[in-house]
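Hi R.,

Here's the chain you asked about this morning:
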Amino acid sequence: MITSGTQTVITENIKMTADRFGVEKFATVFEILEWLHKNLKLVSGAEFKREYFRKRTADEIIQSGVATGCTDYALVFCALARAKGIVTIYVEVLDADWVEHPDYDDIRGHVFCEVVIDGKTYVVDPQGVAVRPWIGRRYVVIGKGLDSWDLGVGNIETLKSFIQKTL
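And the predicted structure, written out as tokens:
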């Protein structure tokens, strides 16, 4: 059984959405990426982001039809991929240059997912619609888990605290 976090619980809505995708796992990754960008609108307003950043479940994000950024895309990707039986890990990263000169008023990071298919791990960028063999040198991994809440991050303040403890 594939484990989900509190933020990525596989609800009936998530199961119904995942049922639209095929059974071949690698192809399913791309089907989910396509679905994300056809069904979630990126909202970049600071007020919206401040209100909802890291505070919603994958199901709530799907129901709203809007995403605050990479975190929301990754949360929904994790839930849908797990609903299809794909082992999926939530990956929090920081820009390597930012790590050298941190500015907590302008955190530069991203969220990826790792999927394990046929014993191989691939890095998925749900917001960037990309699959890679590795994260690369541009980023520093600061946490892996089931979802943002699993890492103890539920808003911008807890993100800052998590980063300070990690670095």
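The mean pLDDT is 95.

Let me know if you need anything else.
M.
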